[in-house]
Specification:
single chain, mainly alpha, Glycosyltransferase, 2 domains, two-stranded antiparallel sheet, 2 strands
């Protein structure tokens, strides 16, 4: 739903469970953050609710783009880890040991584990994070935002990504006999209701389709993480069928996302009073989800829409927004250094410490799936006319030559 899935999940948990925790506002750069911005941290907005999350996405996106992050950026993230392996959203004074009142959470921990696993060389930190996540798994096989909190699709999915990144088999990580995939399957709506995923059941146990949860759960149900995967497109639109396993539930969720993107090529905000506003972050997540499910061809129009519309949103959203776009573009085989006229990798790097190494990438031969008919059809048409004209000119010259010799 926005660039801070961890914060969004917490806010949604408040709404669903009626907890006493204050809701979290949508991200926006803050000229006067309530806490000092530490060295090594990406972004200049208040990191209280999203410091570890945005740092993890930024590092993961840089690694995906072939950039070697700054040592101080990696050091800041590793320094946020508690002794038991968990992470809080932000610790202003990491020199102080975590205590019972430290607000650790599964989303920050799982995101950090994925980033550190991708960077390599931090095996001990990753293992400790995954060990803590296993210790707070709910009996239904899933995870809530906070330890012991009710299972939700987003938290469960980001933890699945951490397990996979650490080399675990998510299906074998069980509590009371239930795996994360069992938990996600319980949050999948039947085809009669669209095949999407719910974030959580409401107080009466009813499931309500949620695009943000669906994009996350499609990736999680396929055993992938925040960077997704890029399989060859299946060439067949996803269809909805009775889901008896997480794989079919993921295909059903992908079918829902295809339908949700069909009219406007973007998703809309689910926040009260903002239903007509585009949801840029969730659209990027949907592109990643569809590509991971093998439907990159069907995600291409949404990515092209983001190329044309998401620049201002990313500038406001900061490092996590740039990271989401980089991960979506890379998954689909598009160059994040030339994204609607913007170099997302450079823009992301400008929000944090200078990277240790930024290789000059070789020009990539980009395979662009058909969009809406668009410019590629025009180019082929013009190219065809040029070819016909060239052939005609050659034939005309040959004809003149023969006439001169006769």
């Amino acid at each position: 739903m926005n660039v801070r899935r961890s914060a969004a999940a917490l806010a949604a948990t408040v709404v669903v469970l009626g907890a006493a925790t204050p809701a979290v506002a949508a991200p926006s750069p803050s000229p006067s953050p309530s806490v000092a911005i530490p060295d090594g941290l990406f972004g200049d907005a208040d990191p209280t609710y999203d410091g570890v999350w945005r740092q993890s996405l930024a590092l993961l996106a840089q690694d995906t783009a072939g950039v070697v992050p700054a040592p101080e950026a990696v050091g800041w993230l590793t320094g946020q880890q508690c002794a038991d392996g968990s992470f809080a959203a932000f610790r202003a004074d990491p020199a102080r040991a975590c205590g019972a009142r430290t607000a650790v959470d599964t989303n920050s921990t799982a995101a950090a584990a994925q980033a550190l696993a991708a960077l390599g060389g931090r095996r001990a930190a990753v293992d400790k994070a995954v060990g803590w996540l296993k210790s707070v798994q709910n009996k239904d096989g899933g995870w809530g935002y906070t330890p012991g909190g009710a299972t939700d699709a987003n938290s469960t999915s980001v933890v699945v990504g951490a397990l996979a990144a650490a080399g675990e088999r998510p299906a074998e990580v069980r509590a009371d006999g239930h795996s994360p995939y069992d938990a996600l399957l319980k949050l999948a709506l039947p085809c009669a209701d669209g095949g999407a995923f719910a974030f959580q059941p409401d107080q009466k146990g009813k499931l309500t389709a949620n695009d943000d949860a669906t994009a996350a759960a499609v990736v999680g149900a396929l055993g992938k993480g925040l960077a997704g995967a890029s399989p060859k497109p299946t060439g067949t639109p996803p269809g909805c069928a009775d889901a008896t396993d997480a794989g079919q539930a993921a295909r059903n969720g992908a079918a829902h996302l295809v339908e949700a993107l069909a009219d406007d090529r973007h998703l809309t905000s689910a926040l009260p009073g903002a239903e007509d506003q585009p949801d840029y972050g969730n659209t990027a997540d949907a592109v990643l989800a569809l590509t991971t499910a093998g439907h990159g061809d069907l995600a291409a129009p949404a990515l092209r829409w983001l190329e044309s519309h998401a620049a201002d949103w990313a500038a406001r959203g900061g490092p996590a927004a740039y990271a989401q776009l980089i991960l979506a573009a890379d998954a689909l085989g598009s160059d994040p250094r030339s994204f609607g006229g913007h170099d997302l990798v450079k823009l992301l790097g400008a929000t944090g410490p200078a990277p240790a190494e930024t290789p000059t990438p070789a020009p990539r031969q980009e395979e662009r799936p058909a969009d809406d008919g668009g410019s590629w059809s025009v180019l082929w048409w013009v190219g065809g006319l040029c070819l016909v004209a060239a052939v005609g000119a050659v034939l005309a010259l040959r004809g003149r030559g023969r006439a001169g010799r006769s």
